[in-house]
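Something for you to look into today, if you have time. I want to see for myself how the chain folds. Leave the record below and I will have a look.
***
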Amino acid sequence: MDLITPAVGQIFWGGLVFIILLILLKKFAWKPMLTAVNDREASIKESIDLAEKTKAEMAAMQAQNQDLLKEARVERDKMIKEATDTAKRLVEESREEGKAQQQKIVAEAQKIINAEKAAAISELKTQVASLSLEIAEKVIKGELASDDKQKALAEQIANDISLN
């Protein structure tokens, strides 16, 4: 049992060495170790706070990005609608302008056709009148070849004039 029960002197010197060791450790080792642990704890706490702050900023940025994306989509849709409306308007204006030009060309063509028709009719009337005069001249020359026929015609014209 001697091995299990220590002697009183051993307990005294062991206790004295332990107390001295505790005092030395407290004076020289624990302060720097506690300072290092406290510094490490503060550093970890700052890192956690910074991570939470960064997480909050990222969430805010994501929300802001979502808002910007929504605004961009709305703006894109608006621009597409405006472009579509402008294209439709331009097509309609071009169509109306084309119809107006077509009507103008048709009207001018009708005027030209009518003018040429009138000129052709006038020329035809002139030719018919000329031919009629030539025929009448030939007929009259044939009928007035003798003096008796000339006198009868002159009397008939005189009678017609006096009646009018």
